[in-house]
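Per reviewer request, we include the raw input and output of the structure prediction for the construct analysed in the revised manuscript.
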Amino acid sequence: MITWADIKKSAKSTIAGAVGLYLAWHTAWETARIVANDLKQADSRTFFYIKRAIKLNPTLAAFSIIKNYQITLRHQNTTIQAIPVDPKGEAGGGDLITIFTELWAAKNEAAKTLWSETTLSPLKFGKSLRWAETYAGFEGDSPILEQLYETGVNQGRIIDVGIPGLELYANDSARMLTLWNTQPRCPWQTPEYYKQEAATLVPSEFDRMHGNKWQRTIQAFAPLAWWDACKVTNMEPLRAFQGCVMALDAAVDSDCFAITMWSARRRDGEIIPQLRYSRIWTPPLDGKIQFVNRDNPADVEYPEGEIRRLIKQNTVICIAYDPKELEDMANRLATLANWEIFRQGEGGDRAIADKRLYDMVRDRRIEHSGEEEMRQHFLNANRKPEGNYLRIVKGSNPNRKIDLIITASMAVHRIFDYNL
């Protein structure tokens, strides 16, 4: 078992592909498989570099047939295949080498089953490999890689191959070799490159990808000092007919009904969102929030009445909302303002918007007047990675509300959509 864990852009896929191609080229009647979480990923990483090596080398190309996701080496009757995680179709293959790419993300039941099914066959008499190329994952959320780390690193012994500082481990009883490199060693991993990456990634993802360091799945959204640094003491008043964006996050009995309204100004050509208004309604003990006073819809002690007032007194360009609880209100007030659904789930706007809010607060590119409830909701918020983005999520205490920060994310995102 080889675990090749290295920082981003350290040629992990190229090295894995070179090993796989070498073994396949020199061994007859065998199969090598490249496994990833989906077929696109399997084809775009290690398998891609194998195909490219063959196409660029006339000798290799003369003896190879490349068709879709399979390469046949005619002189050995050996195949190299790119496959997705599919334990039903690939169980018990007895491969010469099985290469798992980005093992940190292998966490569902299909991945765990396939991992078990591809255990090394005794019929290879010690001449087969499982190879995992990856960088660090998330504690409690990368079950296969965590076990390899425990066995290979924590229970292994460090070995010296003459490269100063290289973190290389052997576990003889488990027949494992583990590289867990945390330092840049390639000439293209320059300070300028890391400066650029640090500007686009949240610190935890930067440390995971570029430091090969384990991370917790959920962390504080951002330092409170960042939010406090965005406070201004004398925000200029809204101009006549200055456009604003409102955002609503509604709940009936468990969370708050939250409203924020934002405008924007320009600073050195950049859009600077400005928090103009925030308010929450909390459910009574063992009760529910009433959205509207049916006898007096304009009653500002209820959310709908306050929304009506804000629309009447300001130039509201749009109202971003989650339709789960607010579709009825949106339909009733459709003639008063432009209501826009803000997609919350997978594939929606939220992950992009939450990352944008993170970046804006980090760079002090929003302004607020120090509203205490908003500050508390910011402090309560946590973040969860979602690809290259993140999601604002609750912590372990459900009583610590984050609804105002959710509306801030929605509104700031819409400000950029409308280029206010």
